[in-house]
């Protein structure tokens, strides 16, 4: 597959458990962050986003936490299911939203594996 | 509503050749971005187009170029291909109604997988 040879951090969890995926970002001026999920053979799929003026945002079964002090982002997935198996990427937008442009910088990704 | 469509899905080229990849955004989306994904470098931003104008550019050599047409469809071209250009090239579109539109409203296609021999 497309990830052959890619050394990714991996996370294995039991089905039904909660998953926490972590990400460190680099640009303290970034004001917008996004989590994407990429399944094998597919393009990245938007999961959840958060602005820099927020610490936490919740979606359906997912929560994103932002700690600007240490430039850390995390994605929590509740009650992990087999369909959650994928590579998860965090991304920061390094173009100011006010300018109407966007330029995403992606993390290296974390491979989430669900054990039955 | 159809998603982002990229063609071709797979292609093989040899060093020195050039390649053109095509992207049709979601209907009504005016912004198209291109990303390169490789095992070693991950996902890297190439460029973004909005209303036929390049608004943002990544750190890639001039061999990588792109354009956007009046119907928002976009193409990217890589000339004088190198082995290291082998990658999955992803196109993403967004509505881009103006300032304040979140980058999260970015919808990716399945990608064009380029192999350079």
What does this structure look like?
The complex is a heterodimer of chains A (116) and B (117). Residues 1-6 of chain A have low confidence and may be disordered. Chain A has no helices and ten strands. In chain A, the strands form two sheets. In chain A, strands 1, 3, 4, 8, 9 and 10 form a six-stranded mixed sheet that branches. Chain A has a four-stranded antiparallel sheet with strand order 2-7-6-5, with no helix packed on it. Chain A has 116 residues and is an all-beta fold. In chain A, 0% of the residues lie in helices and 49% in strands. By secondary structure, chain B is mainly β. Chain B is built from no helices and eleven strands. Chain B has strands at residues 5-7, 10-13, 19-24, 31-38, 42-50, 53-57, 64-68, 74-78, 87-94, 107-108, 112-116. Chain B is globular and about 35 Å long. The N and C termini of chain B lie far apart (37 Å). The model of chain B has no long low-confidence stretch (mean pLDDT 90). Classes of the chains: A mainly beta (116), B mainly beta (117). Chain A binds chain B through residues 2-6, 32, 34, 36, 41-46, 48-49, 89, 91, 93, 95, 97-109, and chain B through 4, 31, 33, 35, 37, 39-40, 42-45, 48, 50, 55-56, 58, 88, 90, 92, 94, 96, 98-111, 113.
Number of DSSP helical runs of chain B: 0
Main sheet overview of chain A: 6 strands, mixed
The arrangement of helices and strands of chain B along the chain is: EEEEEEEEEEE
- State the end-to-end distance of chain B: 37 Å
Number of distinct beta strands of chain A: 10
The share of residues in helices of chain B is: under 10%
Oligomeric form: heterodimer
How much strand of chain A?
over 45%
How far do the termini of chain A sit from each other? Answer: 22 Å
Rg of chain B, rounded, reads 14 Å
Approximate shape of chain A:
globular
Calculate the mean pLDDT score of chain B and round it: 90
Distinct helical segment count of chain A: 0
Radius of gyration of chain A, in Å, reads 14 Å
Chain-averaged pLDDT of chain A: 87
H/E element string of chain A? EEEEEEEEEE
Largest beta sheet of chain B, briefly?
7 strands, mixed
């Amino acid at each position: 597959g497309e990830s052959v040879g890619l050394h990714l951090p991996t996370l294995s969890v039991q089905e039904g458990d909660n998953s926490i995926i972590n990400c460190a970002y680099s640009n303290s001026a970034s004001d917008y962050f996004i989590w994407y999920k990429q399944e094998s053979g597919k393009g990245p799929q938007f999961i959840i986003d958060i602005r820099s003026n927020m610490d936490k945002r919740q979606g359906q079964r997912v929560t994103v936490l932002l700690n600007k002090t240490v430039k850390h982002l995390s994605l929590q997935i509740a009650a992990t299911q087999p369909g959650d198996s994928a590579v998860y990427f965090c991304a920061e937008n390094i173009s100011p939203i006010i300018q109407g442009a966007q330029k995403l910088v992606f993390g290296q990704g974390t491979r989430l594996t669900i054990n039955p | 509503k159809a998603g982002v469509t990229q063609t071709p899905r797979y292609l093989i080229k040899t060093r020195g050749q050039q390649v053109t990849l095509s992207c049709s955004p979601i209907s009504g989306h005016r912004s198209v971005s291109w990303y390169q994904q490789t095992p070693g470098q991950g996902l890297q931003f190439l460029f973004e187009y909005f209303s036929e104008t390049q608004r943002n550019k990544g750190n890639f050599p001039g061999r990588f170029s792109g354009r956007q047409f009046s119907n928002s469809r976009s193409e990217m071209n890589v000339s004088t291909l190198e082995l290291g250009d082998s990658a999955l090239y992803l196109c993403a579109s967004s509505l881009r109604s103006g300032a304040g539109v979140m980058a999260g409203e970015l919808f990716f296609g399945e990608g064009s997988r380029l192999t350079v021999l």
